[in-house]
Design goal:
single chain; mainly alpha; two-stranded antiparallel ribbon; globular
């Protein structure tokens, strides 16, 4: 039997003898180089997987509408498929269904000018001519298009053409006429809108080089009075 020396006394003591049925106490394993026992190192932390970028719903809807408008300007409504819209917008066809419900609902939005007119007419009446001209030009230079100009180059044959024309009259020119006082408000509103669209055609579609080389503010200063003249009673 081995003996253990007790501290300070130098006397030896026998280790405890296990009782009947007991197992001998396990001794701690020796540590090399006199190092103290330490806990096992924790496994390295696994970095969290990067979160998938969230799709901006409003930006996606706008991209879908732009794609549908582009296709409607070049193809008959019946020939446009949701897949073609999805491919141009860079989304999946089921996502179009999620946001718009079906093809008819999507193109009902495409053929509406209501939200476009909200932005076009968003100014006091005495400043509206300048606002309309600037809004159209900034739509071309900053946003790449002015949705109001769809009435100029969209195919207007058949039922879809009838819808576009009716929407444009009700949502743009008739709405403008409701804001005008004095005689011939309907005629003056249509003249103001047609004056604006003429600028849009030359600037955004024909891309007149002299217009494109001129600053927006210079064009506004020169052209807005012609639009405003129809708005004043």
């Amino acid at each position: 039997m081995s003996t253990v020396t007790t501290p300070h006394t130098g006397l030896t003591a026998s280790p405890p003898v296990p009782g009947p049925g007991e197992q001998p106490a396990a001794s701690a394993p020796p540590h090399q180089d006199g190092e103290a026992a330490s806990a096992a190192p924790a496994p390295p932390a696994v970095p969290d997987a990067p979160a998938a970028p969230r799709r901006d719903a409003e930006a996606t809807k706008a991209a879908i509408l732009r794609a549908a408008r582009y296709l409607l300007a070049r193809h008959a409504h019946a020939d446009i498929t949701l897949k073609a819209v999805a491919d141009r917008a860079g989304v999946s066809a089921p996502l179009i269904l999620k946001y718009f419900g079906n093809k008819d609902a999507l193109f009902a939005r495409v053929m509406s000018f209501e939200s476009d007119a909200d932005a076009l007419l968003d100014a006091p009446l005495d400043e509206l001519g300048r606002h309309m001209v600037r809004h159209l030009l900034e739509g071309q230079t900053q946003r790449g298009a002015d949705p109001v100009l769809r009435i100029v180059f969209a195919p207007l044959q058949g039922e879809q053409g009838d819808i576009l024309r009716a929407n444009f009259r009700a949502q743009v020119s008739d709405r403008l006429a409701e804001r005008l006082s004095g005689p011939d408000s309907g005629l003056r509103a249509e003249l103001a809108v047609s004056t604006l669209l003429g600028l849009g055609v030359m600037y955004g579609i024909a891309r007149g080089p002299h217009l494109r080389a001129t600053t927006i503010e210079d064009i506004v200063d020169r052209y807005a009075p012609a639009v405003q003249a129809q708005l004043a009673p």
